[in-house]
Amino acid sequence: MKPVLVACAGLLCLATAPAPPQRLVTVDDLMRLRSIADVRISPDGRRVAYVVSGASLDQNAYVPELYIVDATGGTPLRMTHATRIANRPLPRPLLRWSPDGTALSFLALIDEVPQVVVMDPRGGEARRVTSSRDGVVNYAWAPDAKRIAFVAPEPASPEEDRRRKDKTYVIHVDRDERPTRLWIQDVAVGAAAKPLTPLDQFVNAIDWTPDGGQIVYSASSRTGFLAPYYTRVYRVAATGGKPQPVVDRPGMNTSPRASPDGKWIAFVSTDRQMGVMATRGLYLVPFAGGESRYLTRTLQAWVSDFAWMPDSKSILLQPNEGTFSHADHMFEQHLVRVRLADERAEPLTEGPTANYSFSISADGSRLAYRSVTAETMGDVFLMETASRRATRVTDVNPELRELAVGSLRPIHWRSFDGMEIWGLLLTPPGYAKRTRIPLVVYCHGGPIGGFTYGVFPQFMHTVGQVDPYPVQAMASAGMAILFPMPRGGSGYGVENFRAIVNAWGEGDYKDIMAGVDYVVSEGIADPDRLGVMGASYGGFMTSWIVTQTDRFKAASTGASVNDLTDAYYLGEGGDFMVDYFGLPWEAAASYVAHSPVTFAANVKTPLLIQHGENDRRVPLAQAQKFYRALIAHNATVEFDIYPRGGHVLYEPTLQREQMQRNLEWFARWLKPVAPPTSDANPR
């Protein structure tokens, strides 16, 4: 079944008018595109609230706007004007309807700090509810619609305030951490908040029981990169008291949700396993505690979000890794319903789409979500769950119809050992295999990561412009882009994640090069005009590739791991390296043998290095070290440092600069020829 397009009066007029000529895509076009940051259906299923975020170069920030649209479609009503929806570093609205549907809440910036605000869905500006000094991290409405529970840091002590003011404050590493606590507060104006959790717990997720008498939550005993693997599930009375453990076992145990009938708690868990490759499955435990049940055992997928269906007989979830979709479907992300009775998993969405940010009406009859296709940024869809009939109710980026975007399709090839490897191939608008063209390989991050459909295939789950590579603008310039999914990443099952343990740059490198050979053999890629790019783990892979072969005529590596030993010692997620290589003092030879900097003397490919000044995940020293080694060996290399930038860039001005730089870098070395706009296929 294909989604049915609903057109309001204005859209019908557009449909009957002659289609305007399409033009090629530029970086500025990509910067003007808007992303849907959050979608929430009203309890009665008649309205859908959603937040649209667009980049403002003038403000150098993302500007989110809240809208409400009727479930049957029509013209959306903008709800916010003066209120600043939380947008730092990216929009994170946390839209919520009150259980009775009379109020709409979200996080807004008040004195530059995120607070819960509430507004009348009929109009008017929002009013502040919380006054957390350091801002709210998460929150949930009580079933009576009179209270909220929220997560916020414990305020600083007067002594800490004094020391910060007189500049004598010292950071004591791994000491004196202020916990994130669970608080409860009446929604009434001027109500005070009361903490419910102790100072030795770092709370990260919360949910109310159906009767409003208790709150279930997950909390860790520590902070830092490994904190999620030390989470436990608790419940506490809304009136206060000692929290009671519900799930007390090693590994990740997080995101608890109470069933509508009050009998169960569903939660995401790695079931005593530690580390980034552990499966994050969905589990059930009786409300009072006891043995847990692995609900998604047959699904074997990571669960990123889920919600109970109102009858408590099934759960709707969003899997984002694993084996539910494979082969040519691995680029899709569907919403899946799992039945408690038999653990049967069935997708509610279908087709070449990636779906996010879903919510369910109170009676379960309607589902609202964001759906992305290959050539879009995503729109809000509404589904009748009984028939699974889906209707598009927004048109967030109508200007996409004016752009001649390239064609994105799945392809596959055999690697060195016979393994079938898949990827996406983006070709220029109107390209019909009439001539060989430049090919740029885009290596994904992770290693546990991958691509989906969409204008920004690696970042459709967030604001797309965090992607440093403007692939549609590159296609409009006459380049093809290969998005390979090598072993060690998503799409081949959770056991495949371990395929590159102690082996970065081995089988995954060969998988990618086999994909290049395949696109060349198909008569598409010009073997003398090849490029490669990627950031984070994709940056590692790019740096590694140019130390192993001179087939590429240009490369761009961003936020890249170039020295694995430094990644352990200097990065905020250094423990990540132990999962793949062990401890560096015990596996020193392997760390050195798999580091691109070790082989810097081999680099013959012109290389652009890009790095954020304040990258804590992969510190700037990684780029500086590789750059110095390349200079010492007389390589052709340029090095850009982005001020204020982190592991990704959040400021629109820097994002635009980085995308334009990459476009020009590959155009300089690969000499593409832009297709005539008349070749573009109208859509």
Structural features, described:
- The chain is an alpha+beta fold and 683 residues long.
- The protein has a domain of 270 residues: 3-Layer(aba) Sandwich (Rossmann fold), CATH 3.40.50.
- Helix content is 16%, strand content 32%.
- The chain is built from eleven helices and 37 strands.
- The strands form eight sheets. It has an eight-stranded mixed sheet with strand order 30-31-33-32-34-35-36-37, sandwiched between helices. The protein has a five-stranded mixed sheet with strand order 1-29-28-27-26, with no helix packed on it. Strands 2-3-4-5 form a four-stranded antiparallel sheet, with no helix packed on it.
- It is globular and about 70 Å long.
- The relative contact order is 0.10.
- The N terminus and C terminus are likely disordered.
Shape: globular
CATH domain topology of the domain at 404-673: Rossmann fold
Topology, number of strands:
37
CATH superfamily of the domain at 404-673: Alpha/Beta hydrolase fold, catalytic domain
Helix/strand-derived category reads alpha+beta
List the SSEs and their pairings.
Elements: E1 4-5, H1 9-16, H2 27-32, E2 35-41, E3 47-56, E4 61-70, E5 77-78, E6 96-97, E7 104-110, E8 113-119, E9 127-128, E10 138-141, E11 147-153, H3 158-165, E12 180-186, E13 194-195, E14 202-208, E15 214-220, E16 231-237, E17 244-247, E18 253-258, E19 264-269, E20 281-286, E21 293-294, E22 301-308, E23 314-322, E24 336-339, E25 345-347, E26 354-360, E27 366-372, E28 379-384, E29 389-392, E30 407-414, E31 420-427, E32 437-443, H4 471-476, E33 480-485, H5 507-521, E34 525-535, H6 537-548, E35 554-558, H7 564-570, H8 575-581, H9 588-593, E36 607-612, H10 621-632, E37 637-642, H11 652-670
